[in-house]
Amino acid sequence: MLSLLYQEGPSTEGIFRRSGSAKTCKELKEKLDSGAEVDLACESIFVTASLFKDFLRNIPGSILSSQLCDKWVSVMDQGNNEEKIKSIQRLIEQLPRANVVLLRYLFGVLHGIEMRSEENQMNAFNLAICIAPSLLWPPVSSTPDIESEFTKKISSLVQFLTENCCRIFGEEINSLFGEI
User: Fold this and answer.
1) What positions belong to coiled-coil segments (predicted)?
2) How far is CA 131 from CA 34, 87, 107, in A?
3) pLDDT tens across 124-155, in order?
């Protein structure tokens, strides 16, 4: 999925913003969940993006870990960019290895899309609005006002992560997918 998004996302206007066919997504999700072979290259890239966001939303406790929710939310209240980056790196060290690997590839994709935002209309802000709700959610439900404020803070964090991913994850993030 990520490989397809890396290849096609940067040249696709509105990637992650536009939804794939709900019927197709449901059918493919059922096939994937059953372990059946699925060729996503034959599907719309919007279906792949929708399936990937659904996958992220179904990671127990979220990819950024709901246990660290308060710490993630407070990152953007810290001083300068260097302090934010160091705090983010410390939080990443507390995540399970599988989550860290997936985050690196995810932000490699987002960075590639952002680099061609004039073509695809998906700058770091737009990507964050679309992806943030799939990356972290509060451990307990709350009022709509509090949830709205939470979503804004997480979107700001995801925008910062996208804009600074090379400094956070290392320059090799640009070559994670090799020569595709």
Assistant:
1) none
2) 26, 21, 11
3) 999 999 999 999 988 777 778 888 888 899 99
Residue 179 resides in a domain: no
Residue written as token pair 């006002």: 145
Burial of 131 (0-12, 13-18, 19+ CB in 10 A): buried
pLDDT digits (tens, 9 = 90+) for 107-124: 999 999 999 999 999 999
**Rounded to whole angstroms, how far apart are CA atoms 22 and 19?**
8
Average pLDDT, the chain: 93
In a domain, 180, yes or no: no
CB 157 within 8 A of CB 125: no
User: Domain count of the chain?
Assistant: 1
Report the length, in residues, of the chain: 180
Residue 19 amino acid letter: S
Q: Where are the alpha helices (DSSP H) in 43-122?
A: 45-57, 69-75, 81-93, 97-115, 117-120
